[in-house]
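Hey, I'm writing a tutorial for new members on how sequence and structure tokens pair up, and I'd like a real worked example in the thread rather than a made-up one. If someone can provide the structure for the chain below, I'll link this post from the tutorial.
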Amino acid sequence: MARTGILGSIPHETSLISIIAAGLGLAFVFGLLAARFRLPALLGYLIAGVVIGPFTPGFVADEDLAKQLSEIGVTLLMFGVGLHFSIRDLWAVRRIAVPGAIIQIAAATVMGATLGRLWGWEWAASVIFGLSLSVASTVVMLRALGERRQLETVSGSIAVGWLVVEDIATVVALVVLPALSVSLGGNSNSGEGGGSLALDIALTLLKVSLFTIVMMFVGTRAVPRVLGRAARMRSRELFTLGVVAIALGIAFGASALFGVTPALGAFFAGVVISESDLSHQAGAETLPLQEAFSVLFFVSVGMLFDPRVLVENPLHILLALFVVMVGKSLAAAIIVLLFRYPVSTALTISASLAQIGEFSFILIGLASHLGLVPVEANSIVVGVAILSISLNPFIFSSIGPIDRWLRARPKLLSRIERKQTPLEPTREGIALRGHVVMVGYGRVGAAIGRALQMNNQPYVVVDQDREVILRLRSAGVPAIFGDAARPGILKQTGLEHARLLIVATPDKAQAKEILAYGWKVNEDIETCVRTHSFSESRFFEELGVSRVVMGEVELALEMSEYALGSLGIDEFRVAETIPELREELFQSGHQPS
């Protein structure tokens, strides 16, 4: 069917090309603009959809084709989620991520459902609307944490685990919703009349169970074997084709044979591949295709947004935005604090969740297709997503000032934070002399700790991950749980009798406070700090740190030393070159761009 806009009638034969060209082209332009203002590119993709949508003047893309492309986008998006699904990551933070995410989802759903009822919606529509406001965007959260180098921190690990639980909850909702549709007053997804509620749910769970059994017992054996054969052919083209064919094939088969949504089928396909040693290569080869169709998905979502809702129902948008950015975030922060984590961790988790994205779109889109929510629900969710994603960077930038303000008020801080040191240091830790105090025991800290153990050097660890602390203490290593920048935590490490203080955490502000306390109680102590930028390196050098380590520079120097040695350069000349190169790298890095 031809569509008419400012460019006139577009022939049917070119409708697909036009929507792909217009969608990707405008997404690129608006994505660049968003990135220019340090906003997530996803915001630009949504705006591109608004521009070519039916509610704005000018070129109007074919809505039917847009929906089909968005289905492919959702399928590949869910495949990517399954491909990167990590039970190990979830297990590591299960004690806070699982109950925390469940309670937060419930709280946000209740708040959203209350709004729906106030607006006169049915209970089913209100609950679904609330659920769509409760789940954060995977893309936005991971990019925000990655840009701030917090993915490897305790806060980042909890946030990722929390997100995995939210994703699982949404997948369950996507499975159950079609079965409940008729009973809740919506349409039948299969076009058949509805039976009893119990029978519908039982049949759905039976189909999903059969599909899961087939994937776990057949898929886990057949899929890696097929991809393994393609990999042995050493053809990237065949391997990529195999991954995409398996993803879309399982998605279609799940829908045709088991009545499972294509999105869920693709998710299971990703999970099956993730359990094999081919998962990383599969993800790398299909990433461009996933990203391209995911962009089209976000564009198609933007096409659903009617800007008139901002004029006709501004209060609806503002109240829903309040639930997402204040209600949901506040609930998450309270939960984290109740689990005895520091305020800094609570602020990071709450900021990470102060937005909604792709899963919200998928959920509200399915509910709209089933006739379970009012027409304006789509526009409200998309509007809230656009605003929350736009404001999320500012929420993250407020973490530092809020944290510093609270630190300047110890009495208020002590009321907010519950006692963070339920694990008292061992007697051996208190009695140590000439030891090393290490703040942070991630991958960097663990490697340093192993080196110290191999040379029989005593050390004390301070970390905010209670699982790490328990593991270290069971191994006989003195370890203290808590934020080392907080008053009283470092006092328990015997820092005044230590020889070396290593700050292996990537937080500059935290490192500064730790160093200040270290020099206050032991002015002769040696110090070592890790950084991620030349400006931070210069800052710590001027502060008086004994050794500042920047990962990229040390990698370059190590490889340079190997290159010169392998080329037969005299070892004395190599010994002279490396320090000179180090100085040049830092000088060039400190020059203004």
